[in-house]
Amino acid sequence: MSHDDLRPDARAYLDAMAAQPRPPMNDATIAMMRQVPPEMIENMLLMFEQPLGELGEMRDVTMPGPGGEIALRLFDPREQRRPGPVVVFYHGGGFVAGSIGTHAPLAAELARQLDLPVISVEYRLAPEDRWPAAPDDAEAAARWIAENGAAFGREFTGLVICGDSAGGTLTLVTTLALRNKPAALPVVLQVPIYPVSDRSKPYPSAEAFGLGFGLNTPDIAYFDEAYGSDKNDWRASPLLADLARLPPTLLVTAGFDPLRDEGRAFAAKAIEAGVQVTYREYRGTIHGCFTFRKALPSAQEDLTVMLGLAREMLAQAP
Fold it and tell me: Which of 129, 261, 287, 302 is catalytic?
């Protein structure tokens, strides 16, 4: 794929980032980020991302988790609704950054376009809490939400597991865990968005797009080191698991993403295992595009297409 195939908005965004380089990802940078008030980080991100937009209700709930309380936030375009599925959402950030707040605009947009309640999960982050803290929290949250719709003033009938980047990995891992040991409600759809699916070996896209495309190889190396996972364990590399009997899967990648080929490989293996898979690769764009929708207007169009596919798959669910 030629660099000439980059969309104009993606190229302009990358040029702007190159003109204002940020500090390298390391423990010192993360420590500094932890000292910044969350609302300041969220306001800075609004330079690139759309605002939250209209909602019928937002509600904060806490639940007991394996390492302490887990914060959850409900996003719903309706104040009240009939029983139906709920989206459990895990934010991205390389397992070291991101939050309910940084990904609130994306969660709200998912809720509006799917016309479903979305519950975003504040799982533990590295390097303070290393693997498997994040997948432990992600699984615990999905199980708790399945049993506690009343805490959100709603009745849930099924789970849609969704997340972007690191959250896409948690989507895959959680869905596998709930296949192995079902929760109180079935998973009716999983939507991993440009996920990490296999850290056990290198893929060509990691080399092709590892510098200058937004998610750089040194940052990925730091995320891996800080997270501290066993890369040969399916809870870090879900591609290594047996993928049979997974629920319908909508897997999304970006054409200039170093993680692209991991996503392709997961989709292919899942299809071979008999899973209903819709694979969508957005050509000409980059990792993280759905959280840069102000800077990348084409990403809004991509997101709308993706959520239309999700609605179609949900309509076919038993």
Answer: 287
Quickly count: other Cβ atoms within 10 Å of residue 264's Cβ.
17
Catalytic residue (one of 137, 257, 261, 302):
257
Q: Is 287 a catalytic residue?
A: yes
Task: Give the CA count within 13 Å in the CB-facing half-sphere of 11.
Answer: 9
Please confirm, yes or no, whether 164 is among the known catalytic residues. no
Could you read off the pLDDT of 30-39 as tens digits, one per residue?
999 999 898 8
The CA dihedral of 115, 136, 191, 42, to the nearest 10 degrees, is 60
Alpha carbon 164 to chain centroid distance? 2
Give the integer Cα–Cα distance in Å for 198 and 201. 7
Q: pLDDT tens, 152-207?
A: 999 999 999 999 999 999 999 999 999 999 999 999 999 999 999 999 999 999 99
- Taking the C-alpha atoms of residue 192 and residue 246, their distance in angstroms, rounded to an integer, is 13
Q: Which is catalytic among the residues 165, 197, 229, 237?
A: 165
pTM score over 0.85: yes
Instruction: Grade residue 22 by pLDDT with cuts at 50, 70 and 90.
Output: confident
Mind giving me the DSSP string for 23-72? PPPSHHHHHHHHHS-HHHHHHHHTTTS------SEEEEEEEEEBTEEEEE
Q: d(Cα 266, Cα 273) in Å, to the nearest integer?
A: 10
Tokens of 75: 């996003």
